[in-house]
């Protein structure tokens, strides 16, 4: 008879160190992301929404889910980006009652410029060998798929 796997009540020192390092990486990434957004006169939320829309047009409700915020907040963000010509609303071809938000060519260019200005991820990773980057990528994928 198999016994259930038990989780240790206290993580070991190595696990705690890794968790702390991941937290530091996330904090540094967010700091630089906010700076890059500000360099393009965007808030962090506007930049994240624009980045999502560069992948594919999305309805407001789905944007709100991905950004983990209220749909009314997304409407305001889209309004501000639309007034700058970075985003447009268009009917959903599958259901014309639904409006999709989509990045304009100018919006995609701003998002690309912002992404290219992020040094934090690029510079430290350049110091790792391809084998180390592959191992890091694979470990991160395993961590994310464990949910």
From TrEMBL:
Pfam families found in the cross-reference section: MarR (PF01047)
Annotated Gene3D superfamilies: Winged helix-like DNA-binding domain superfamily/Winged helix DNA-binding domain
Keyword Transcription regulation tagged: yes
HTH marR-type domain mapped to chain residues: 15-145
Stretches that traverse the bilayer: none
InterPro entries: HTH_MarR-typ (IPR000835), MarR/SlyA-like (IPR039422), Tscrpt_reg_MarR-type_CS (IPR023187), WH-like_DNA-bd_sf (IPR036388), WH_DNA-bd_sf (IPR036390)
Keyword Transmembrane: no
Keywords for the protein's UniProt record, in alphabetical order: DNA-binding, Transcription, Transcription regulation
Name under which the protein is recorded: MarR family winged helix-turn-helix transcriptional regulator
């Amino acid at each position: 008879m198999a016994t259930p796997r038990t989780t240790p009540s206290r993580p070991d020192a190595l696990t705690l160190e890794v968790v702390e390092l991941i937290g530091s990486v996330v904090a540094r990434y967010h700091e630089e992301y906010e700076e890059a957004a500000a360099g393009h006169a965007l808030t962090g939320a506007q930049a994240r929404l624009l980045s999502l829309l560069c992948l594919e047009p999305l309805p407001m409700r789905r944007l709100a889910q991905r950004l983990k915020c209220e749909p009314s907040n997304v409407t305001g963000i889209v309004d501000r980006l639309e007034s700058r010509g970075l985003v447009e609303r268009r009917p959903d071809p599958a259901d014309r009652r639904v409006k999709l938000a989509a990045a304009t060519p100018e919006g995609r260019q701003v998002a690309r410029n912002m992404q290219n200005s992020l040094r934090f991820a690029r510079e430290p990773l350049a110091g790792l060998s391809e084998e180390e980057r592959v191992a890091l990528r694979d470990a991160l994928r395993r961590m994310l798929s464990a949910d």
